[in-house]
């Protein structure tokens, strides 16, 4: 009895798509270590149009990542240096205000510190009501709530919130009548918000120096220092 020979049908293997290949390589990161000969045959297209090996491409990617990390580290270090410089300047301001023997010397110290340490061109300090007895101190003004300055800043005195942004010419003229070049932007900060001691205005000739969305921490700290110094000298 003779056996009938039959041709076996070929077994079809489903093709893998790119996602499946990528998923396999992610799950087997040592794949190319087990098949190092593939490193010599795989080629990638470079941005210049020439083909490069997989190893060259990996080196390029790692180099790019390293550069991005260096840039981030550089930005962090620069931010840290800026914060350190600002903290040192605030410390000098506090020392100047504490050591000032008179209200006039405290205002002068504030103006000097703002100009030399923070690059702020003009400083205005306004005190509300009968608290201020001396009205001949440069940069210090007694505010009347029905006066032109209070009326010009009526929203500020109503909300008692810090305002940063452009300073219109009328307001600049009211606050800094002797300024050769009127400030273009300013930060308007309440002094003792709850007790309504007055207002501190820091003006800059740079229209971009003070922006509505900028941080408020430095302004709040400065206002607290100025308020404490003024209270001590008014007592």
From TrEMBL:
Coiled-coil spans in chain: 52-86
Record key words, sorted: Coiled coil
Pfam families: DUF484 (PF04340)
InterPro entries: DUF484 (IPR007435), GAF-like_dom_sf (IPR029016)
Name used for this protein in its record: DUF484 family protein
């Amino acid at each position: 009895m003779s056996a009938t020979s039959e041709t076996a049908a070929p077994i079809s293997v489903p093709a893998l798509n790119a996602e499946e290949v990528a998923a396999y390589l992610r799950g087997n990161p040592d794949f190319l270590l087990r098949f190092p000969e593939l490193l010599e045959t795989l080629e990638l297209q470079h941005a210049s149009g020439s083909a490069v090996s997989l190893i060259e491409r990996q080196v390029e990617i790692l180099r790019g990542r390293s550069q991005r990390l260096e840039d981030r580290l550089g930005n962090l270090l620069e931010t840290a240096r800026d914060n350190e410089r600002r903290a040192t300047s605030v410390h000098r301001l506090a020392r100047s205000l504490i050591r000032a023997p008179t209200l006039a010397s405290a205002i002068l110290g504030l103006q000097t510190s703002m100009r030399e340490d923070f690059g702020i061109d003009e400083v205005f300090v306004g005190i509300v009501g009968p608290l201020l007895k001396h009205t001949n101190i440069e940069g210090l003004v007694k505010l009347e709530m029905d006066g032109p300055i209070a009326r010009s800043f009526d929203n500020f005195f109503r909300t008692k919130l810090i305002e940063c942004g452009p300073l219109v010419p009328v307001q600049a003229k009211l606050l800094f009548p002797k300024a050769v070049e009127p400030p273009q932007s300013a930060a308007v900060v309440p002094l003792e918000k709850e007790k309504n001691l007055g207002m501190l205005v820091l003006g800059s000739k740079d229209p971009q120096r003070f922006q509505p969305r900028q941080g408020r921490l430095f302004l709040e700290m400065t206002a607290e220092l100025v308020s404490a110094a003024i209270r001590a000298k008014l007592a």
